[in-house]
Amino acid sequence: MNWPLEAFLSFLAAGAFGIIFNIPRKTLISCGLVGMSGWLFYRSYFLMFDDPIQATFAGAFIVAIVAHILAKIFKMPMIIFSVAGIIPLVPGSRAYNAMRNIVENDYMEAVDFAVQALMISGAIAMGLVFAEVLMQLYFKYQARRTQKKMGFTQE
Amino acid sequence: MAEISEVRRELALDCFLLAGKVMMESGAETYRVEDTMIRMAVSQNMMDSHCFVTPAGIMFSPSNDLPTRFVRIHGRRTDLERVARVNAVSRRLVAGQLTLQQAYEEMTEIEKNHYLFPLWLQVLAAAVASACFLILMGGGWADIPFAFVIGGIGFYIVEMVLVKTRVKFFAEFIGAVAIGTLAVLVVNSGFGNDPDTIIIGSVMPLVPGLLITNAVRDMMAGHFVSGLSMGAEAFLTAFAIGAGIAIVLSF
């Protein structure tokens, strides 16, 4: 695996998707960074453990976490950053292979690919959910801490 | 709350509904639209307001003794810049940096304008994304120009058919058929190497990524009506693309 090349390509692809979804111009670069981090994490997890479903979960999780942090920094909706980063994880090739096998009347093979594609879509959803819950817990904790601090300073 | 005058209340309602409408039309999540509208209402001293947002319309009830208002949402088109702008205006309204009148004027300004990138740039972006995905999905370097051109053409065809017919699934179907045909032609005439990776790369710009993310986040926040309908739309889009490719492959 060629790390700098993949990093560059995923950065470019996520930025291009940012243009297709028409995100605000000043967030294009950070949007590309989100896509890059998600893809690199996905790839390295995949190469280490050879499980596309877990790898997709990890990638989607990272994308959502980074998108949340950027949303806080830019004070913009989180969706602007997460959309383009999610796209590279979509199981395009597996869905395509499922379709191809259906056309070739090889249904057993097609079901195999289709189930994998379905599981990967589920993994994307779970990654987003986990990151969201975690970030909400963290922000709540932080808000409570600042409230406490303010209470002390007022006394 | 009785001291809010009638005119001001009407203006406030117009402002909230306009904000919700613009956000929903531009591809925001349902729960964010509800959250924004309720926050704005609270900032205008309407404490017990309720709102119900679906992809097809928004209902907003300011309180028990005021009439409920409804707006219908017609076309939806992904334009996240508008979402960000409305969000910024509502933040400033809640923080007290804008008066209601100013906020309403800014909202109407946002509603009138479209901040879309020019079409040629979007087509170029789709072409670049296709070429990138060709390599990321394991394609060969020799196929890059074909993925670049075919991805751009596919995206352009979808946009054109969408403008002419206004049927999203039909446009995606036609786009997928065009991509499949071109890829098979290129490979059969001896230029390209692998039709599979060319097709996968070129189809990527049509993937309903925004719908998938929105559906997941809405379901999580408990908005099952919107979540399910967005999920259904994402599934239908994926199905239209798959059917288009399958038709080409079956010949």
Give an account of the 3D structure:
The complex is a heterodimer of chains A (155) and B (251). Chain A has 155 residues and is an all-alpha fold. In chain A, 85% of the residues lie in helices and 0% in strands. Chain A has one domain. Chain A is built from 6 helices and no strands. In chain A, helix 2 packs antiparallel against helix 3 (52-74), helix 3 (52-74) packs antiparallel against helix 4 (79-86) and helix 5 packs antiparallel against helix 6. In chain B, a hairpin with a 7-residue loop joins strand 2 (57-61) and strand 3. Chain B has 2 domains: 1-112, no CATH class; 119-250, no CATH class. Chain B contains 10 helices and 3 strands. Chain B has 251 residues and is mainly α. The mean pLDDT of chain B is 88. The interface between A and B is large, with 46 and 51 residues.
Question: Mind summarizing the main beta sheet of chain A?
Answer: none
Q: How many domains make up the 3D coordinates of chain B? A: 2
Count the helices of chain A. How many?
A: 6
Calculate Rg of chain A over CA atoms.
19 Å
Query: What is the domain tally of chain A?
Result: 1
The average pLDDT value of chain B, as a whole number, equals: 88
Quick take:
The complex is a heterodimer of chains A (155) and B (251). Chain A has six helices and no strands. Chain A is an all-alpha fold.
